[in-house]
Amino acid sequence: MLANLRRYGIELDETDIKRECPVFDQVGRAMGFPGGIGDVIFLQHPHAFDFNVAVTLGSIALVAAGLGAGWYAWVVRPQLPTRIMARLQPVHTLVSNEYYLDDLYQAIIDRVILAGARVVAWFDRNVVNDTGIDGAAYTTGFAAYLMKFQQTGKLPNYALAMVIGIVALAVVAFSLKA
Fold first, then answer.
1. Is residue 175 part of a domain?
2. Is residue 31's pLDDT more than 70?
3. Could you tell me where the DSSP H helices lie in 73-133?
4. Class of residue 110 by CB neighbours under 10 A (exposed 0-12, middle 13-18, buried 19+)
5. Would you call 6 exposed, middle or buried from its count of C-beta atoms within 10 A (0-12, 13-18, 19+)?
6. Of 29, 93, 165, 174, which has the highest C-beta tally within 10 A?
7. Can you give the pTM of this predicted structure?
8. Rounded to a whole number, what is the distance in angstroms from the first to the last CA of the chain?
9. 46 domain-assigned
10. Longest dimension (CA), the chain
């Protein structure tokens, strides 16, 4: 919409956009943004690219220091990493086990998520399947069991049922007319 307006030389500022596109603000308020999504989008105007030489040179220096330390530890003094690992054994264990985050994630999955899944599975099996699906099948089977007693195979019984049905329809029709 805005691109079409700009193509025709119509420029809108942020208040015009918020006024012309109220649905975005309503969605933003529903998502919890106090002034709507327009206040979040238009917090500040975009600015030009800023190149900071000091940050760039500092980053290059840190990379060079890291490469130099790695070369010194693994090429010049190869026994140094083993000695450091022996002195900092608890830290090495913590880092090599990745701060035990995998164990934490697995415990959460085993105890929380799978417990919730068992509840959902029980509900699906006992409520949805047994009551909803199987219940409809059992009801149909029970109705068929009751209907089988209505089938006698004797033509006069069927004729009598049709006559009773026609009389019932006629009584209803005449009672509605009056």
1. yes
2. yes
3. 80-87, 89-96, 101-108, 114-123
4. exposed
5. exposed
6. 29
7. 0.40
8. 62
9. no
10. 112
